[in-house]
Amino acid sequence: MLRWHWRSAASISSVRLADASKIFTSEEVELPPQHVANFLEGVNRKFCARYLEFLIEERHEESYIYHDRLAELYLRMTLDAKRTGDAGIC
Fold it and tell me: Residue 15: phi, psi to the nearest 5?
């Protein structure tokens, strides 16, 4: 089942962020959060940030791993936006 999600998500970059997040936040299938975050970060950092926000806010994930990763991701996104002159990073 996990492989199906990965194959289905292959075209995720052409999907709206709100729609893409439904694939990985479904209550029907429990996916390993670290693997999902790794995959999403490789596709689009905004997707990864949204997923980590979901874990923290909706699933009440308290592990420092996700909080720290989200902070690091925000920093990288901000620095990248500053470097490219992109004002709308999020």
Answer: -105, 150
- How many Cα neighbours within 13 Å face the side chain of 70? 19
For residue 55, how many other CB atoms are within 10 A of its CB?
22
**How far apart (Å, rounded) are the C-alpha atoms in residues 12 and 1?**
17
| Residue with the two structure tokens 């596709």 | 43
- Residue 76 carries which side chain, given as an amino acid letter? R
How many residues are recorded in the chain?
A: 90
pLDDT digits (tens, 9 = 90+) for 64-80: 999 999 999 999 999 99
Domain ranges of the chain: 2-84
- Whole-prediction pTM: 0.73
